[in-house]
Each structure stands twice: as structure tokens, then as C-alpha cells.
Amino acid sequence: MSEMIERIDALLAIGWENTPDQLLRDCRAEIQRLSKQDAPIPCVWKQDDEGVYETGCDHRFVFTYGNCAENGAKFCQYCGGSIAEEFEIED
Ligand SMILES: [Zn+2]
């Protein structure tokens, strides 16, 4: 990835008009490769009555205030998965 940033810096230094074709082809290939990478696997978080979350990867976590949305939490800090908050259905 850092190699790609160096290449893009090189592209910017010489100016778009004079960009060698190979540089553009390499950038295109890298963007294509990165866009094919899988999205993070979801980690299901369930909150109990006391506000403690049980994570899908078998950890427990509690926010001092608020829930995932209120804290802007999007990824599980244990497994790196995207947080999928599961809410209890009340009957
Ligand atoms: Zn997790």
C-alpha cells in the first residue's frame, strides 16, 4: 500500500498530462485489488439489562455512557469485525 502512495506521489509530481501509461496501469490494478477485498465480517453485539454487551467473538464490553450508536462504535475492538447490534424483541 505504501508503495502505491509513493507511485501516486510520483504521478502528482510529474503532473497528470505526462503520466506514463504503466504508472496508470499499476494504479488501476491496485485499486481493483483493494476494491475486491472482503468487507469486515460482522460481529453481533447483544446488550443485557445492565448495559453490558456480549460480543459475537465471546468478549464482554460496556460503555461508560450510551450504546454503540451513541458512541459511534462501528468495529469490534476484539476481532475487528463490523458491529451488528442485536436488539431484544420485547413481547
Ligand atoms: Zn468481535
User: Which strand order do you get reading across the main beta sheet?
Assistant: 3-2-1-4
Assign the structural class, choosing from mainly alpha, mainly beta, alpha/beta, alpha+beta, or little secondary structure. Answer: alpha+beta
Most strands sheet: 4 strands, mixed
- Rounded to an integer, what's the Rg over CA atoms? 21 Å
* Order of SSEs: HHEEEHE
Distance between the termini: 50 Å
Count helical runs. 3
Low-confidence stretches: none
> Which oligomeric form is depicted?
single chain
Q: Please, what is the average pLDDT? A: 84
Number of domains: 2
Ligand inventory: zinc ion
**Would you report the number of β strands?**
4
Q: What is the general shape?
A: elongated
Report the sheet-strand fraction: 15-25%
How helix-rich are the residues, as a percent range? Answer: 25-40%
